[in-house]
Amino acid sequence: MADRQPNNQLQLAFDLSPTGEAREQTSEGTESAVTGHSTESPTDTEHMMEEVCDPENLKQALKQVQANQGSPGVDGMTVKQLPSYLKRHWPIHRQALLEGTYQPQPVRRVRIPKPGGGTRCLGIPTVLDRFIQQAALIVLQQRWDKTFSERSYGFRPSRNAHQAVAQAQSYIAEGYGWVVDIDLERFFDRVNHDLLMGRIAKRVKDKRLLRLIRAYLNAGAMENGLVSSTEEGTPQGGPLSPLLSNLMLDDLDRELERRGHRFVRYADDCNIYVSSFRAGERVMAGITCFIERRLKLKVNKAKSAVARAGRRKFLGFSFTLGSRPKRRIATEAIRRFKERVRELTWRSNGISMSSRIRRLRQYLTGWRGYFGHCETPSVLADLDKWVRRRLRCVHWRQWRHSRTRYRELTRRGVDGLLAAHTVGSACRYWRISKSPALSYALPNAYFSELGLPQLCLAAS
Questions:
Q1: Which one of 32, 33, 162, 367 is most buried, counting C-beta atoms within 10 A?
Q2: Distance between CA atoms of 344 and 364, rounded to whole angstroms?
Q3: Spatial contact of 157 and 26, defined as CB atoms under 8 Å apart
Q4: What pTM value is reported for the model?
Q5: Do β-strands 327-329 and 317-319 pair in parallel, antiparallel, or remain unpaired?
Q6: For residue 98, what are the β-bridge partners?
Q7: Distance, C-alpha 279 to centroid of its chain
């Protein structure tokens, strides 16, 4: 019977068709009820690897990996190839997990540009390792999440950035208009493995699972064909990394609560709200000392500051000043928005306007889904106008020759004299894009018919 068990579990776990439905592990949603800030007892955690390998848990893990998609790791296996691979090889991997001998492969290191400059290192595990990490994440998160602080919002079920911003806004409205904005320098790259494993060992007694997590931390990273060791950090890109980062920073949350501070933390973004600049300086000094001595992390003093809450950004938002602060889009977020729209509509690309708008639609819809929660709709309306003006500018550039421009304007109903005056103008493209002739020839309805979404739904 024991010999047949892996095959029975394999059939239960992986007889699945690909699905796009994601189990809500780190997705956004409504705020869940969080129990008291207690530490989980490890007495019932000696057999957690059996929970990780449970068929129902594996089904959920596979669905999540398929929903997340993502790039291949160092072995080149894609998400689509994973189910068929598991049908053939899962019994071997399952046995290694239960015996505590499983060894993950190195992650594939990828460097992506950061919005504020520099690069961020991502570690892309193989899809098999993502699957195993996801299975472990489900088990661990169910146990750990209820012990985390109510003021921690990042990478948690039924919690999201909008809730974190709303909590910050409520503190400001209560009169705590100064913010201690703490930036952790390269947090995901600097986490001390020994300190992290010590915190995990307080919650997990299953030595097989402890060895597995340690193996993932030490798996190494491949870049340009060379594998380098990883002696610190939790590489961004694996399913377990966000949970481990929350566990590492749980000590910070506990210390802030012990001191009675009003704070909001989203992953490594932590803002503490106080009533005066002097109080903010004291808090900054004390918490910096705690972070660097107790957590062995480094505070980026160049990016951290004590300032009026309206002068700092938090998760892409800032706040108006006054007794009734409103959420507004941070200036930096608007700048990045315009840069991205310029990239997607670059006028030298020889593609049609409908193709440009198809490329633009997905970005605008996602951007509106996040920043549409601002309380300054006039900013969204202005951005709508800017996008349409940008597209009119692209049209004018594409028409190129004076004869073509005159023909297109008059064909679209522009008076001949106005069309001739516009074509003969010495103004550059951006200035012409705001002219009455182009506004009439290319009205808002024209772009709506091509599928251009509006950021401000109340805009005409």
A1: 367
A2: 11
A3: yes
A4: 0.83
A5: antiparallel
A6: none
A7: 32
